[in-house]
């Protein structure tokens, strides 16, 4: 007999894919990606599933609403539908549509990929309201206003497009989508990844506020054990598709080696040693920004901003989401228009150069982007991705191949990886590839835009150690954008706060 206070009960859930990637290379037997998972969620309870990339945490969450293409299931997922428990895995697609968005809401990790870039915020929320509620006409308009005010974006932003909003504001819009029908269960898949600390706290407070208002349960997916400990009534730790530990006090008293590894990763930045030898402020700055102003319509992003960065320095840029950190990097790269001011690099005003001259300067000015999943072309082999800049700058094919293979080995990959595609790598491996691409030409200045924020904590430590080695080996100059103050403290000798 199922208890009435249980909202969701997962029984012996196994998930597998009938394709070549899921078969054992020797036996040919299909392997389960998620295996024999059991847990339940009670009313108004918050449960967190924690683990590294590939642990099965997100796949487990997506399986509840059967949102993963080509996935096959064994076991049961029982949902309390107004007192009647139904197996979500046995429902037809049409029956499941009545549950998705109405009874169970979902917040996805990357709001920019979840929102339609061609529709205003108002139109997208209206579409969700009409699909999941019985509201009509003026009631819909009032609901849009109620939701935008509730999530803290404000009704005055209703005609904005997703690209007009900051990362935190977009995630607030995703929360508005998820609660249009007052669901019984909210699934939040890494909703605070890549957000600054203040914005993370705001989003967590907003989810808690929604939970209290609607009395809903929350299933929270995260790689951050520290965060999970703050918000959860119970924590589930997953490794290789299996639950290996549960409990409220995993952070304070981990029982398995894997959980201990996750806890230890929280302190790894304390051991990073980055050298700043050779900084000479008596010489001309390598990068000198004077009175830089950037506006977007009526909004001022940067106002008379000044910064001098000297050779072999590592300067950290911190600030809330939307304060202009990424805009600053884009302005330095000349991929964002500036309204006034000057940017001098290696003694030359970048405002006055273009064409081939700009191309020659850019080989000494490279960037590592925040998201390794979207910054690498899925249609190009890894070797071609890394060698593209080398070939564009006149390297011959043999020299290019040897250089790329050497970089792959230096960055913890193999020569065979030259011929693979980005989809065949984990998030941490993809970021290693992105860093290899950026340093292939041994630039004088490396711009780093939140290079670890989309990665698991243990993977973050590997990337930070790699960047530290690069900094120490090549005496490279860094401009490091991050919301993680521990990381900034480890990697930077100076910090600038925006906003």
What does this structure look like?
The protein has 499 residues and is α/β, with parallel strands linked by helices. The chain has 16 helices and 19 strands. The protein has a 6-stranded mixed sheet with strand order 6-7-8-3-9-10, with helices on both faces. The chain has a 5-stranded parallel sheet with strand order 16-17-18-13-19, sandwiched between helices. The chain has a 4-stranded antiparallel sheet with strand order 2-1-4-5, with helices on one face. Helix 4 packs across helix 5 (138-150), helix 6 (167-178) packs parallel to helix 7 (197-214) and helix 12 (382-392) runs parallel beside helix 14 (427-439). The chain is globular and about 75 Å long. The N and C termini lie far apart (56 Å).
What would the keywords be for this entry?
six-stranded mixed β-sheet; alpha/beta; about 500 residues; 19 strands; 16 helices
Strand content: 15-25%
What distance lies between the first and last C-alpha atoms, to the nearest angstrom?
A: 56 Å
What is the overall silhouette? globular
Number of strands: 19
Q: Structural class, judged by helices and strands?
A: alpha/beta
Helix content: 25-40%
- Biggest sheet details: 6 strands, mixed
Low-pLDDT windows of residues: none
Question: Largest beta sheet: what is the strand line-up?
Answer: 6-7-8-3-9-10
- Please, how many helices? 16
Mean pLDDT: 87
Rg, alpha carbons: 24 Å
What's this model, at a glance?
The chain has helices at 57-64, 93-97, 111-114, 121-132, 138-150, 167-178, 197-214, 225-231, 257-265, 325-333, 355-362, 382-392, 397-410, 427-439, 457-474, 485-491, and strands at residues 6-17, 32-42, 46-50, 71-81, 84-87, 104-107, 185-189, 217-222, 234-239, 242-247, 287-296, 299-309, 314-318, 340-345, 348-349, 365-368, 445-449, 477-481, 494-497. With 499 residues, it is of the alpha/beta class.
